[in-house]
Amino acid sequence: MCRNITTLRGLAPPATTPEIEAAARQYVRKVSGVQKTSVATEAAFERAVAIVADATTDLLAALPPRRTPPSTDPPLRRLTAVAARSSG
User: Fold this and answer.
1) 17-32 and 42-62 are packed helices; what angle lies between their axes, rounded to 10 degrees?
2) Is 23 contained in some domain?
3) Whole-angstrom Cα distance, residue 50 to residue 15?
4) What is the rounded CA–CA span in Å between residue 81 and residue 86?
5) pLDDT at 76 over 60
6) Assigned domain for 2 exists
7) DSSP-derived secondary structure for 9-48
């Protein structure tokens, strides 16, 4: 559906709660067409993000380990890596 959502299964270390939530938020943005919430959309949007994040956490816990890690890191890890390189 959304090519920009990165694979979270098989990351080392495993996907964090913020990474799962970011992926859920991106998915909900895509399917809802809501890029910026308003008073009218915020509650439904945030509820959907929580449900998708919970489902993603359950899915990742239930799947067997991957044989090979994903080819790309999630955006939050990429930001952390860039920050580490620039400060070091």
Assistant:
1) 130
2) yes
3) 16
4) 9
5) yes
6) no
7) TT-SSPPPHHHHHHHHHHHHHHHH--SS--TTTHHHHHHH
